[in-house]
Amino acid sequence: MTGELRLLGLAHGLLLGLLLACPWQAPGLLPWGIDALLLVGGFQLRLADRRFALRPGAREWVSHILMAPPRLIRWGAAAVVALIAGHGDLAVAVLLAALACELLAYPLTTRLLGRAPLAPAVAILTLLVAALGLPGPSTLHLVLSFLTGVTAAMAWLRGPDGEPRALALALGGIVAAIVAPLLFPGAQAFAAPTLTVCAAWALAHLSVLRRRVMPWHLGAAPLRLRPAVLRSPPS
Hints:
By secondary structure, the chain is mainly alpha-helical. Helices cover about 70% and strands about 5% of the residues. Helix 1 (about 5-25) runs antiparallel to helix 2 (about 30-50) and helix 6 runs antiparallel to helix 7 (about 140-160). Mean pLDDT is about 75; it is low at about 210-235.
């Protein structure tokens, strides 16, 4: 099941492209773009690494570190963009957060929460989104963005795959996250990560939406079942 990886990979690349244009077109959106980049990156990483049983001992950590360099290129690009935009402190925070997430935060999270059921995963996700709306050090904020994406992927993996109702809830969350800041300006800090999480869920659901169930019926033989085949009308 790699369809959701392709869709999220495209979204991740699009975010990185928009981030590259931020210093010249919309410098004010740079912090929000970096937050979204880290969140979607954590979501995508957890979907790619969906093992239920982890390797024993230090082998799990070592194998993760060996696969980290390609992912760090994206974080390095985000740091360069922040540096070009004149935010040297943000560039340093991005690099520190990337190293902390890849070397420590992600391995610990998968070890501690890898088998968490749906309800605890959603509760932890809610707390992380609430924490992202509070002021704090830039590095810690970016680490929390990454872990929010990881936890959102854990919640999605434990929920219904591609159900239209689940997709409708994700789309409803997107609409609510857009409307909430218009009605309550103070909710903008909480709405941004909520919007990103719901958008990632919607992309994942769209990639695995179940096709219409094909009914089974009795064929010519009384005890033989065969699937119904949709035939095109004769030309």
